[in-house]
Amino acid sequence: MTKYGVIVGSTRKNSYSEAVAKAIVKGLPADSDVTFLNIKDLPLYNQDYDANSPEEYTTFRKAVAEQDAFIFVTPEHNRSISAALKNALDVASRPWGENVWAGKPALVASQSISGISGVLANHVLRQSLVFLDMPTMQQPELYIGQSDKLFNENLEPNNDGTKEFLAGAGEKFSQFVSNFK
Description:
A 5-stranded parallel sheet has the order 2-1-3-4-5, with helices on both faces. It is built from 6 helices and 5 strands. The protein is globular and about 50 Å long. The chain is α/β, with parallel strands linked by helices.
């Protein structure tokens, strides 16, 4: 059984990023252990806390360390990832030399209600994951544009093409992850 951590870069309720993440997860094997890790309540990373970290940091780092692989889904905020997502990456990679992301395979998906699909956020996130030593699945590239038109009021894919594409990415990711076990 593989433990998949899911990090949704949006902190708003009923986000399209969460909808994309849930659709990807549907393609994982039935025996997968999937945990959505909450990033919205993490205090802003501050190096002054390295010697005596807040409980939220310790709990989050432990949850990250327990996962075998990660699915990241991010919205695009001002041509980058959300502040909450960047903060989560920083919290679990510090103090220096105690990076709990290292070696864990990653899938990156981005979404936007615009036509450019969060492509820049996707690549900004990928740059950070390279530094964090996370092997990242390259194909399929998951740039989900006009996300507000792809999901219904229950935040489920409103067409078979979207549903199959996202679940297929989850299935391919499980195959990618099996190369690291």
